[in-house]
Write a structure and sequence with these properties.
homotetramer, 337 residues, alpha+beta, 2,3-Dihydroxybiphenyl 1,2-Dioxygenase, domain 1, 2 domains, ten-stranded mixed sheet, eight-stranded mixed sheet, 6 helices, 34% strand, globular
């Protein structure tokens, strides 16, 4: 990967996420009171949330809608001037792009929202309003003590097409890769980063376009286990879908949660520094039993079957999905289809 | 419960366990090098192990045998003079009892081994050789950093018969109880203690006499997760049967392990003080989904199906087992029979 | 030690503590909102608090008074009938004893309060009203997540006199002992237990009668560090007197706190099981630098100089104090006198 | 800060450190056996060590020498071609620069070592031999479980001169800043980063050129406390100089260690992501008692007085040091001078 600005723009990191929810109050309660997100601002249709480590307006936007799903994922870029070249690249591939005025999304400067040729609603922005840092306001710590957004995990029928876009055009670097078995292995999934962590986005083979989950960073394993205890004590037992456990890929400690609307997030901690441009991607085989869960615990079928639909910024409707071009789960789980 | 010595003896606590193993070297490697037990002594047929907190010769005895299983479980009593009345009580119920000479089991004083009327091989002893305390020898900490033996969990066809023996005759106190559903609930399982923790022995309805597991105390949740990482790194992935997770009963954080022979132990931490004689048992219903795993994760069928056979001190052969008198698992797991 | 009831009574454990405070609201805020004690009940002059693990009415009673200090320490006994023989033993040594009617201290049955011949106000009681268990109400966890009372640490001019009373008369067992240096070492401090932990009471040489601190159990090291972060974020920076750190004696991880009135408590976790009647006391030398802080960090002078005065149940005034009969701190701290 | 390559080179991160030690075997024992560094390679004069997370040959080089101190600090750059412009910039300021051949330092490609105009020996390199990743080899975890190098902290008489060099010439970005008190505050210290953490280098006012410490990342607070327990158990009690504790600046949890030669390292965990180019530096005042230790514990005088001398790559002798131009510690510590 190159971090130079040769392409006229620089993506900085996964920036924020818009989740669609039918019951705004219930979702606010879940994310703020239980998981511990900080409420920056709210209005009748939106709740803007951030993590304890965040210094900008929001990393999670809850928007009232008729059905749950994803409004958009968003990347922060290093300068507003970098948005124009992105518009050009999106349109050159037949994608849709629309400018978002300053403040149209609260706290955010002028931005570009696109429906890329992969079918995903992606917002690019530089400016976001500074807010108080809660990192040393330990009196505000509660629940999972969510620190910040870490990454998106998206499903698409052909991961290789997504890889080309994110790596060769948007300048992401691959940290880990999963390939199918056999003599001519195909790319099955890729973990790609701009910031110096394991990833900002993971591309996984599956029925898509869909967003599998958004990962949020917590401080340590204890935070995740405390959160599990809390969910089990507050009527949210059914929200714990998978984990706690250790990933093979990323080495992170995790808990997957289905929020009250069924949207999926991951609590995530303990990956690694990936600052080096000469980082050689770590390779995994699809059927390696320790790839997904280092401790070998089986992944529930719902984790493979379910994901969040994405709303088209062009039509305002959820995108139609297409089946994966290759198998979308390890052999040992094919029967769970 | 009464802790008075009115019955002529006082059981102090779960003392140690004899596990039968076919490959002594492999088991020593697993328990000492991986899990972190301290080797006190060994000979061609035995390895005597203890925890970091132990001040006596052993809490786990590995004995070479033709098949895996349990040689005996053992309780420490408060005085050697208390062994005689126990002999009387066992024989009065038709059990078998035999005296074990000082040093017959290394490090141990004169003891009584019985086959109680429930069919279990149980040793009672007072004296055991003092050894160096490793609690502040942090250079000896490794693996799961096992501290000490905590409890036995045994399966018997009729838990109520076991309850009468342990509570009314041996003076154990119940801390928690599980009952079957319905208008006339039956005792399904009981957690009984002499020392001031959740339990020294748990009696569970099931095909028996068998020992389901022995629980060993570790310092904290981190020790259990570190152990899971270690097992997953050293070729012992398949030994993790259930967990890590939080129990409903006992509130402890746990990991169940099947050792290389298939014998089952539990790593266990975070129960509570139960010193009060007026402790009212906490009651659970068999079908409560949070009873076994507070976080709701399903218990694998093997956990219900498998347990360790017990070797008769009378015949030297494994005891025959009988089916449970009532259902031996929650309704939602009956299909997993 | 013997746990038999030969003496006609059995002390069960350290039961609760009455702290005198001048500003009841401020102390309630500190103990409940910051440290995480659960409020069971309150009136104009008292706040009754308990830990998350407690199943009885209170383990900490805050009482409005003209000056901070200790109203009484209290031990739970195994039966109300055991209170009479204690009254006799106290009076036989010239102590004062008074009966406390049921409900006189809220939630408590008939009790005996004494001023023992050591000059300390000590209450003995059996019955205390059962309350909801918060151990699995993780939504109630906050601050230091205090679990329960663990022990008292008291200062008296002659530790040996106290040792005789607690061990030979009240039936406590010594788990650890500190002796002075030299050819004829004197008892300097003793850690004594009834419940199966390191101690219910520690006797330390010093100006007395005074209570040095009450120790409260928390679940793990993380709880103590989270509490330090919280105190540092909420204007209570100055309350942290010593630690976090590891003790040599007890092996516990600790933080000493001076509450807003100057009363001292300890957050405490990670000692050991001491159930065995044949436990041989662990011996330390006064000048061992790892005795107090296993990591060697110096103990501040205030920790040696300051302690809580005790209110006489006979006069209602604070007891006069006498100087220690031997040196009251290690040689390396004598200059800090 | 800009991460563009406009200046013809890009520093990637703090790369490695050469410590001079008189007893190579003793230092290897300390760093490898106790702290848990992985030995990559060694010869009669050197031991090359890395962290569990490292994928390149070494992050710590121990070199046998007549006196302890620092041989060089080193930064990884994004391409070998970027070394030439750095040479030019160093020489333009009157510094010394020398090329280091491939393999001259084992595992390292062609490099540039300089004595910059601040008087520090700094190596720049791109290539370093890939080695096995131990991140998921939990069987190799021991001691502090050191993950990787995080940062250098250097002392120089005039921090502002260093700031100009690192920020305006080498392209580092400031994350936090400490200023002196008063109406015209001077820069007292700065935390500067290239990788997306709190810092790669901190510049502090003090007698210099000296290196105050190198910070190494560990996984969590537990790793630091486990290390403290281990040091206290293995005869290294005196190596713990300050902590464990929480920093105000960086928010990291820390322990400062003086190795057996007196060289100082920091175990460090829990800072934050600093990926955003529009990051506004966080400002602290020199006398803020929570700046250095968020929990308020005093910093020992040795921490301010002592630091490591640096060996000139030009002369092979330690650099002479000059006094700081402004006060080198908070007012409340001036008396400890």
């Amino acid at each position: 990967m190159t971090s130079s600005g040769a392409r006229g723009f620089e993506v900085v990191r996964a920036g924020h996420l818009e989740l669609l929810v039918t019951d705004l109050a219930a979702s606010k309660r879940f994310y703020a009171d239980i998981l511990g997100f900080v409420v920056t601002e709210e209005d009748s249709g939106h709740v803007y949330l951030r993590g304890l480590e965040d210094r900008q307006h929001h990393c999670l936007l809850l928007t009232k809608a008729a059905s749950p799903g994803v409004g958009h994922i968003a990347f922060k870029v290093s300068s507003e001037a970098g948005l124009e070249p992105i518009e050009g690249l999106v349109k050159a591939r037949g994608g849709f792009a629309r400018w978002v005025g300053e403040g149209e999304e609260k706290g955010q400067g002028r931005a570009l929202i696109v429906e890329d040729h992969l079918g995903f609603p992606v917002e690019f922005y530089e400016k976001m309003e500074p807010v108080d840092w809660m990192l040393q306001r330990y009196d505000r710590y509660r629940g999972a003590k969510v620190m910040r957004l870490d990454h998106f995990n998206i499903l698409l029928p052909d991961a290789a097409v997504g890889y080309d876009w994110y790596v060769n055009t948007l300048g992401f670097g691959p940290t880990e890769i999963t390939e199918t078995e056999g003599p001519s292995p195909a790319l099955w999934a890729a973990w790609l980063r701009r910031k110096h962590t394991c990833h900002d986005i993971a591309l996984t083979t599956g029925k898509g376009p869909r967003v599998h989950h958004a990962g949020f960073t917590v401080a340590d394993r204890g935070s995740i286990m405390d959160c599990a205890d809390l969910l089990a004590s507050t009527g949210y037992l059914g929200t714990m879908e998978r984990g706690p456990g250790r990933h093979g890929v990323s080495n992170a400690f995790f808990l997957y949660i289905r929020d009250p609307e069924g949207n999926r997030i991951e609590l995530y901690t303990g990956d690694y520094l990936s600052a080096d441009p000469d980082w050689a991607p770590i390779k995994w085989k699809l059927n390696d039993p320790q790839r997904q869960t280092f401790w070998g615990a089986p992944t529930p079928a719902s984790w493979f079957n379910d994901a969040m639909l994405v709303r088209s910024p062009r039509t305002g409707r959820f995108m139609d999905v297409s089946p994966p071009k290759i198998q979308d789960r390890p052999d040992y789980l094919l029967s769970a289809h």
